Amino acid sequence: MNVENLKSARKSTGMTQKDVSTALNISPNTYKNYEQGLREPNGDTIVALANLFHVTTDYLLGRPDAAEPVDTLRRLCDEKSCSALEEELLRQYMELPHEARQAVVKFINDATAKALQRKSSTAPQKLIVMKRSLHKVSAGTGYDLNDSDAWENVTVKYSPDIRKADFLLEIEGDSMEDTFSDGDTICVQQTPSIDIGEIGVFYVDGCGYVKELGNGCLISHNSSYAPIPLQGTDNRCIGRVLGTADVIEA
Known about the structure:
The chain has helices at residues 3-13, 17-24, 28-36, 43-53, 57-61, 72-79, 84-95, 98-122, 160-164, and strands spanning 127-133, 137-138, 143-144, 151-157, 167-172, 185-190, 199-204, 207-213, 217-219, 228-229, 235-244, 247-249.
């Protein structure tokens, strides 16, 4: 066995000594001894190595007329138009042990994620002007919807919820925490009915609420608040809550 040819054949594939030992189902020390000339592989192993490295057995045995191995990494770099520096970095990477390769990949992934985050944060944010009612809707004990008809224009960040909303309302109270908090601006899609389990804005005996619709009642997400029965009340659904709006300025 020509150890220099063996090393050259392995490196041309980009495989580490551990990769080869795993592929041949032999111990890493056994293969290491092959490359150091401390141990000779048997005939079957030489054939397996030749197949793995895409070379002839004559090349591994060091016969002078044997063909040189195909440099698969060079061929790949030629196909991808890699620079000389990129090719050298790839060769250095392929020489690293498995754990070191994983560390390099993690570093690249982290760096890529940070670069994308910076790009996203500096990209211009699409804004839209929406109408928001001056009266608030309660996530608590109710709020009189008849105290005002006025609306104000607010600038908000564009989102899928905003696109589908008809208007905005500001929440007052804490009965819907942790879903919504006091002071949140919610996107409302106007509709006379919603399904049980959905969150909506409701008019009940002159007061406005944002609640989850239950079976014959309105449900708070804060367990400190009891359900509000709908039977025997003057009630109607005003709209479906789609989510919160990110208000930039009023």
